[in-house]
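#structure-requests
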Amino acid sequence: MLTMNDSPAHGPDSAHQRPDGLTDATVTALGKLSEALEVVEHARGLLYGFHRLTGTADLALGEAVDLFRDAGHNDIADSLERDIVGRNVIEGRWTFQIVEDYDDNYYTAVKDAERQARSQLAEGKRHLFEAEMKEDRRTHGRRHHEAQPGADL
């Protein structure tokens, strides 16, 4: 059941309202930490893309080896198979190892730090900075500027 503060016409729902006593400076700092986490999430996605593309390239290189053999170019096929197919992308590592190291030693640490700061300072609430920005930037009473889904004008 919606409370008056949860009413779509009256601003953010309770999950996105600033807890009593939380200062502007703290909301801004939490917002910046959230922004940093979003960038880390994006970087992680790009890293997984790199992992997928590199794996696809290695499989295509293997197919090229077979095609060179079929075409009678065993020397090229042998060289590609020996020197390139299955090669580490950085010293001692395939991309899955890079992804795992990133996840275990950086991504998880940033994600945990962001969650801990929210829990300690803002009752675990997410996106307070953005919710307040939305309230500041939206045109109250206009279609497509509702505070929440399902709001009546």
